[in-house]
């Protein structure tokens, strides 16, 4: 959504995200004690293409893929409007079907099935429920409830039709509804923690992929309480010293120094 509404920031954001994803990958490299060969394969996308998703196998190359794609999609949106959105969805669907049934390749769906929510973000102002006026909140609640019901009834393990990892796609209505509900709340109440978290979601996502599982496992083992372990991971993630806007500023200074 930011890329679509602030296209002049595209190149700066792409560079910052590239440096940030490389830093996060290096943190994972030292923490997980990967061999150098694996680190290089992950950074260039070789291991993702070969082995598919899972933590940093897709994260670093995936971020660059989205930023390379963004200028083309933004140009399509500017020229064709909502018709381009329909075209993007059709192209994504045909590509996925071709890979699944034509090439019998399903390793990349952890990334490809994030494309629809990427498209939805670019067109958020056009397709969000904020356009429903006074019925906005009821519409959000209906979409959220329907989305959660579909996820509950299908289950993650059964969402592999018409192609693999479809649960990323099925969850999109829930994501859009929750986003709009929080936007509604923020219009009435200034929730500082949410505003802060909104500035560091990229860093939090990367850090939870490195540390989240180990921290949660230790808390769960010590407490025997799944709810407590989840709360502990959440607090730990949000108070991690790397999870601050400083990381973006440091990356920006590094880029300025490099050029």
Task: Give the gist of this structure.
By secondary structure, the protein is mostly helical.
Task: Write a structural description.
- The C terminus is likely disordered.
- Helix 2 runs antiparallel to helix 3 and helix 6 runs antiparallel to helix 8.
- The two termini are 28 Å apart.
- The chain is built from 16 helices and no strands.
- With 259 residues, the chain is an all-alpha fold.
Give a quick set of tags describing it.
259 residues; 16 helices; mainly alpha; disordered C terminus
List the helices and strands and how they pair.
Elements: H1 2-5, H2 10-32, H3 36-44, H4 46-51, H5 56-80, H6 82-102, H7 109-112, H8 115-122, H9 124-127, H10 136-154, H11 167-170, H12 172-188, H13 192-199, H14 201-223, H15 226-239, H16 246-258
Helix pairs in contact: 2-3, 2-5, 2-14, 2-16, 5-6, 6-8, 10-12, 14-15
